[in-house]
Request: fold
Amino acid sequence: MFPPMLLYLRFGTLEKPGFGIWLPLFLVWLILLPIVVLVLVITTLTDVVLFLSGQPYHHYTLLLLRCFGVLGATRGTTVHVHSNDTIVDIDLV
Reply:
């Protein structure tokens, strides 16, 4: 499951559709990739140490991977915000 790669923002009013902006989220993911790999290694080592020491909770890596799954599930989400004057649409592609 992949995280959203693009964010499309559309601004407008009821009378005219307005304009849209594409924001490339894949550039953010490329910047965050080394940090994510480092955190994954740290949580794996923490889980191994906690398991070997007999601690009751040692599932930090599983928690991190499930959080990535939730992030990937946000792909395809559309948010519509309508007020009296303006319309804002947000699409995660």
